[in-house]
Design a protein that fits this description.
Blueprint (H helix, E strand, L loop, with lengths): L1 H19 L7 E3 L3 E3 L3 E6 L6 E5 L5 E2 L4 E4 L7 E10 L6 E11 L2 E8 L8 E5 L2 E6 L19 E3 L1 E8 L4 E8 L4 E6 L1
Parallel strand pairs: 2-8, 9-15
Antiparallel strand pairs: 1-3, 3-6, 4-5, 4-7, 7-8, 9-12, 10-11, 10-13, 13-14
Length: 190
């Protein structure tokens, strides 16, 4: 009879301990809600009553770290990224889920296209990647212009490599430049 009492008491103890496991509450924050390609998204876990975590990241990869830093690609274009966190109790029997969506914008940089040559033929019509972007109307014979200098052509472009061409009707110029994120690059027609 003692053995039966011990088994009953032991079984009830296990049930009480299991029943005492609190329901976890999954929650996390991001350091911002809007990002630009190339940014790092910081996912900070704020879950309560959980001891195990599983993140499903925007690209489908998973992580079991408490917090995650997710690097976006500089070549990513406008869109949304969704992250999911599953927080699980210590005994693995209870879990909670949270998800968040953030927006990402295409990474851009500015390009200043200019010339120091006075060719006498007039304004220079400029194209970037085959699309007309403006005319160079001034010539910098002493020094280079500031970013977006007067008389220059200064488009905002997606980060990456671009082809540049120009003509004044008599002369033509061609070249390639790589635009970096949040910087002003310069291209001179020589």
């Amino acid at each position: 009879m003692n053995l039966i009492k011990k088994l009953i008491v032991g079984g009830m103890s296990v049930m009480l301990i299991t029943a005492c496991q609190k329901q976890p509450s999954a929650e996390f924050t991001t350091d911002k809600t809007n990002y630009v390609g190339g940014d790092v998204i910081q996912l900070t876990n704020l879950s309560v009553d959980a001891s195990k975590y599983k993140w499903t990241l925007a690209d489908g990869q998973t992580s079991t770290s408490a917090n995650v830093d997710y690097k976006t690609g500089e070549d990513w274009v406008n869109g949304n990224l969704t992250f999911k966190l599953v927080a699980t109790s210590k005994n693995g029997k209870k879990s909670s889920e949270a998800s968040k969506t953030v927006s990402i914008k295409t990474a851009t940089g500015q390009l200043t296209i200019w010339t120091s040559k006075t060719n006498g033929a007039g304004d220079i019509s400029v194209k970037v990647d085959g699309a007309y972007v403006g005319n160079i109307t001034s010539y910098y014979t002493v020094g280079a212009p500031d970013c977006a200098g007067a008389g220059c052509v200064f488009p905002i472009l997606k980060v990456g490599s671009h082809t540049i061409s120009g003509t004044d009707g008599l002369n033509t110029w061609n070249g390639t430049i790589t635009v970096a994120k949040n910087t002003c690059s310069f291209f001179e027609f020589q």
